[in-house]
Every structure is written in structure tokens, then in C-alpha cells.
Amino acid sequence: MDVALIGLESSGKSSLLYRLSQYKTARGLNQRGSTTDVVSFEANGLTFHDMPGLRHDTDFERYRHVTDEADVHVVFARAHQLIREWKRLERVLTSGKRILLVISHIDRLDEDSLRRVEHQLKKRQIPHVMLQTPGSTWKTQSFFKQLTEARALSLADVSALTSLYVKQTDPVNLFLKHPVGGVVAAVLTIILLYGLPVALAYQVASRLEPFIERFVDVGSTFIDGAFLTTMLFGDFGLLSLGLYSFVWAFPVVVLLGVMVGVTDDTGLKDKLADALDPVMRKLGLSGQDLIPFLGGFGCNVTALDQTKGCHACTQKNCASLISIGSACSYQMGATLSVFGAIGKPMLVFPYVFSLLVISLVHLKLFARKEVPLFWRHETFLQPAQAANVLRHVRDVVGQFMTQAMPLFLLICLVAALLDWTGLIALLESAMTPILSLLQLPAVGAAALFASIIRKDGILLLNESASAMATVDVFLLVLFASVATSCLVTMTKLGKLFGWRQAMRTIALQFATAFGAVFILSHLL
């Protein structure tokens, strides 16, 4: 039997499925849109389909293939917004499918309202389950028992439920609600929350780098032959560029993972998204699309997966923003290394600011501007649960170690082979005319080409950065960062939107990057 879990964002679907799956999948965080695609799982001989939280009327059609095929609809609604959410889900409640009602967050509902709801449900013998705020324990046996009793609701049943008087409770109105001050506060909060992990990662990586340098210097002396030397310890070597990238990327992955986990589970990320929603709409995005963008500072591929939870008309815009402006852990780590090599690590702040400005200009020029008004669905702030944060970090690190790092090492081997054959030198020479138009030194051609393969390729500037002017180093790093996505991100874009759209996205990105750096090179 197929069971569809249906509800608005943050209504408890993923949390319940995570418990049903015995903590193996579909964990639920206090974050809107934590499910970005339909997640399926089998339990007790049933197949559950966890749908992304509904945000707009058009989402009913978007996931109609799931709801039509399901035998039972488990309909979620938050107790403190119960009548509002039942009314929005009325077409599901009256669909003729067997229904089981799940009311979450009942601890946020006053006693009188809760008593009226329970009385009406029992009077009409409507199968239901009451859940506390995520984190409280409950027995799955009760859920499965109620699921077997699920039945179709009549129009009279639905009318009686949606006519109940239930006291509505909204989250506390934070300073982020202010139309102007809220935007400023949100931007400053994001800089603080996501800048601190990067600063700490720099401190860790800069202390580990000398050990890697020593290992590479000593290790290369034990290797005979140009081929092995190039493959293991050359500019693209498995034990040179590979180790450097790990040292500079891994601390960023872990520390950003902790911060993202905390802001997710507390609900703060949603508050920041709401505060910036009016600004984002002018750029063809919603505030909620900010969440995948920020996630891209950990891993672009994971962030692009999250865009599946964006509205259909904003997904491509959000993916484009991630592609050009989200500095992934590899890119950020390499950037910190280069700026550290010239003794000016604080350049990372104007660097990130420049990324954001270029990204916003890019969206203003090329993005679709129609953004629908989504349902108001605010998230409560709550203390972060250590278990949720640790699971998030575990997932991020697991993906880094099992997907990103092996793929990067494979690319290192291929690039090192091209380096040994001399093809890299020919490809680098093709980059030189582009740099000359930007008034940048040709020595940066190797890093520019390598950054197209992987953003860690920016590390190749370490050897020559000290001999260049600071402004040239800054512009080279910036251009290498935004000119194109890396091969892995390009591949992901191709899978999501098709290669024609992916190449169009990259071409427009290159045009924006070239124009921005051209202007800066003539101004600075």
C-alpha cells in the first residue's frame, strides 16, 4: 500500500518518516523545505512517500503523480495554525482518498482549543494522531493502528473541522521583521554566522599547511622519473594538489556544516530568508531560495539538489545564483590559502562581497522576474538539538569523503596526465589572451584553467602570488572563481536542466564575470 505524506512546510512530515525508518533516512529539521524531492521508504510492508512541503496552489499539480497513486493520504497540519492549514489542504481532504490526520506541535496549542479539536475528531470518528514538538517521544504502533483505520472524509466532516474555533499562535515578531532594519540585520547576521566558520577554518588549515608542504618536498625526493613525479607531486599531482585541497577544504566543510545544522534546526535560517524575501523578489527569487544558496558555501552539488524544493519559476534562477556566487568549501579553502600566501587573509571579506555583488548583477540582467506570492508559513525558533546538528555534519562529511573527494582525486589524476603530456601548457596558452584583455598577468593562466576543472585549482596561484601585485592576485582569484563552474557543478546542472540549458547558464555566467572583472581591472 502506498502512503503519501502531505502538508505545508515544517508540519512534521520528514520528522515522522525519519522515526518510521528507524533513524536511517529522511531526518526532519526545524527548517522549511528540508525535503527537496519526494523521499520514499518502506516500513511495516507499506511504502511511504514524503512530499516536499506545499508552498503554493501550483504545488498540488506538481506532485499530483504522487497523490493520485497513493492509497492513503496522511495529512499534516500544525496545531497552532490548524484551521488555516486545513483550509489550504481542503482539496486533499475532500479528494475521496482514505485520510489520516496528523496534528503536530500540539504543545503549542492552548488547552481549550485542543479540547475542542479532540472532541470533534472523536465525535466524527476521524482517524488522527497527535504529535508533540519534534524531539518528544511517541509510539509508532499507535500511528500504524490509526493508519489501518484511515477513511475518506465527507464534505460535512471537512466543513465541521474547518469551522472550529482554534486560537492561532504566531511566532514572536523579531527585529528581522522591520522592512529596512530587518534586511540590514539579516545581512549582518549571515556575514557573522557564515564568516566565523571560514575564519576558524583558515586558522586550522594555515597551521596544517606547513606539514603538507614538508611532506610534498620530502616525498618528491623519493620518486624517480618524470611521469611519477608529475602524477604524484606535480601542479596537479595526487599527493600535492590533492592533499592541499583536503587540508583547506575539510575544515570549511566541517565548520560550515555545524553552522548550517544549527541555523537549520533552530529555525533561524528561515527567519533570515523571510527578512530578505522582499529584496530577493526583485531579483527573480524568493527568500526561501536563499537557503540553497547559503548551502552552496559547503557544497555546490548538494545546494543544487536543494533547488528541487524551489518553486518551478525560481529554480533555474537559484541554480544560476549558486553556480556563480556560492563559494564551495574547495573554492573558499583555496582562496584562503592564496590570500594567506601573500599575508593578507582579510581579503576574503571583500572577495565574498564581490561574489555577492556580481551574483546579484547577474540575476538582475538575466533572471526571470516573476515570483508568486507563497503562503505565509513562519517557523518557530527553538533550541538546536545536538543530535540533529551532528547528523547534518555527518551527512555533509560523508558526502564530502565518499563523493566529492574521490571525484576530485580522479580529476587530479586526469589533469596530471594531461600535464605530463604537455596538453595543459597548450590549454593554458589559450587562457593568456583572455587575461591580457583584463590586464592581468599571464602567469595566472594555469590557475584559471585548473579552476574550470575544480575550484581548488586556484591553489596554483600560491607559487606565483608573492611576485604579483595584491590587486592582481585578488582579481585573478575572483575571475577564476566566477568565470565558470567546476566540472562537477556543470555536470549537476546538466542533469537537472539538460546540457543545453547548463551551457547557456555557464555562457551567461562567463559574460557577467568577464564584464565585472574587466571593469574592476580598469578601476583598481
Task: Give an overview in words.
With 524 residues, this protein is of the alpha/beta class. The protein has two domains: 161 residues, P-loop containing nucleotide triphosphate hydrolases (Rossmann fold, 3-Layer(aba) Sandwich); 334 residues, no CATH class. 60% of the residues lie in helices and 6% in strands. It contains 24 helices and six strands. A six-stranded mixed beta sheet has the order 2-3-1-4-5-6. Helix 17 crosses helix 24. The longest helix is centred in the middle third of the chain and has 40 residues. The protein is elongated and about 80 Å long. The termini are far apart. The relative contact order is 0.10. About 3% of the residues have low confidence.
Question: What average pLDDT do the residues reach?
Answer: 82
**Beta-strand content:** 5-15%
The largest sheet is: 6 strands, mixed
Number of helices: 24
Helix-strand sequence:
EHEEHHEHHEHEHHHHHHHHHHHHHHHHHH
Q: Which percent range fits the helix content? A: 55-70%
Unreliable spans are 23-36
Topology, number of strands:
6
- The total domain count is 2
First and last CA, distance: 65 Å
Query: What structural class should be given to the helix and strand makeup?
Result: alpha/beta
**Which radius of gyration do the C-alpha atoms yield?**
26 Å
Given the C-alpha coordinates, what overall shape results? elongated
Q: Order of strands side by side in the largest beta sheet? A: 2-3-1-4-5-6
